[in-house]
Amino acid sequence: MRILVVDDDPLTLHMVVYRLRQWGHEVISCTDGESAWKILESGSVPNVAILDWMMPGINGPDLCQKIRSRKDCPYVYIVLLTGRNNPEDLITGLDAGADDYLTKPFHLGELEARLRAGKRIVDLQNELISARETLRIQAMQDPLTQILNHGAILDALLNEINRAQREHQPLSLILADLDGFKKVNDSYGHVAGDQVLIEVARRMRNCLRSYDAIGRYGGEEFLVVLPNSDDSQALLLAERIRLAVSSEPFRFHHVDLSVTVSQGVATWNDPDSIPIESLIQAADRALYVVKNGGRNGVELVHFDSQTEETFSPMFVSPITSES
Q1: What is the pLDDT of residues 82-92, one digit of tens each?
Q2: 187 Ramachandran zone, left/alpha/beta (phi>0; psi -120 to 50)
Q3: Peptide bond preceding 10: is omega within 30 degrees of 0, i.e. cis?
Q4: How far apart are CA 116 and CA 102, in angstroms?
Q5: 144 contact partners, CB below 8 Å, separation of at least 6
Q6: What is the largest CA-CA distance in the chain?
Q7: Half-sphere exposure for 149 (CA within 13 Å, toward CB)
Q8: Fewer CB atoms < 10 Å away: N or C end of the chain?
Q9: Quick one: how far is CA 153 from the chain centroid?
Q10: From CA 118, how far away is CA 110, in angstroms rounded?
Q11: Which residues participate in catalysis according to the annotation?
């Protein structure tokens, strides 16, 4: 474990640090509470802190309270070292946030036993953090394609809408729909269809920037959120996606499956408001134009707060669709 030891008595400090390193722990040491707090604030958070009660600057109980007041770091198991054996003093220390205490002078074997108890708490915390992270990912991730699910991609879009409004930046999104996907399912089964969806998601994700977001909007539809992207940038990225999907067939059991993608692109530049439903509807209407015009292409819609109210966008065809 990573252990912070704080004690203004050099003999006690040396003895404890020496033994802890012998027992295989990584040790950080200092002689006063203020130095210890600077270490904690720097981001070097230990698993365990062994604190002397009486120290210059910030004493042990006060340092306990400061550690417990932090909400942005993992739990630190705290052991107080004290020459006090008055029950009221011990209660004060535990109320301040300490998990355990040792009364000076103490036996090193007792310290080792207390650390074993602390390690059980640390291990349990790590397991809980891991389980919580797994649940968080599962709640946001489409289980098949491993990209964001419907709810998570809409949350990402809403966050980027708020950011675009604050920073007065353009925002674009792409609504993509696979062409001929039903034929793949009907001819080769849903297992083949699933493999195609997995590979499409991988190819699309590889086309994106690190701060773009992609999610499975539904069935064979994908939603791509492009922060700080104007229409020309969004169109270039959509064309890159189109080529990535259509340039190579999808291999399934020695059969090459041909799948293309139609995409509707919507870009918003108005700093006043960005209605999320209208932005998605605009991309959907652009997608509808591609579907009716031969598929495997890209269409763009521009609109601002005036045209959005009547919802009469003008579509353009910057890319020649392939049949």
Answers
A1: 877 777 877 88
A2: alpha
A3: no
A4: 14
A5: 194, 197, 198, 216
A6: 86
A7: 10
A8: C
A9: 13
A10: 12
A11: 220
